[in-house]
Sequence to fold (157 residues):
Amino acid sequence: MRNNKGFMLAEVVIVSTIVTSVIVSLYTGFNRVYKFYNERSHYYDIDGLYALKTISDLLLEEEKLNGYHYLPTNGVIDDNYFTNKDLISNLKTNYNIQNIYFKSCQATGFPSDINPTMEDYINNFLNGNLDCSGYNYLLVLERMVNDKYYYSYLRIK
Fold:
């Protein structure tokens, strides 16, 4: 019988290298997917979109978007802005809404007293990626669930 220790050692090293390479490439691929998923879940929140659609419908129903009604000066919508205060109050409670920002698409900037996470959202997502052509207003929603902020925006014609 021949001595195959050298061949077995080479075979183990080659197979180990291939397996390690596959594991590293899978890890980096899944890490990118997870990072993208995490970003999408925080900055394109589906519950926030449902809440924004309800708020948008309420603004249209109460004719707050007819061009004659004054926008909130600080950009933040509170319960007193609406006629149907119960609906907006329940909506804020059910969806854990912290702030609702409302601005004209032609206006620039948001309130200066926003939290840093909201400022990051505006700088990274809205300023570079938002196309307001054909839209008149922009609603941005800030929610807090389990001590984490979630954001959504809705353009309104």
In short: The beta strands are 97-104, 137-145, 148-156. The chain has two domains: 1-43, 45-156.
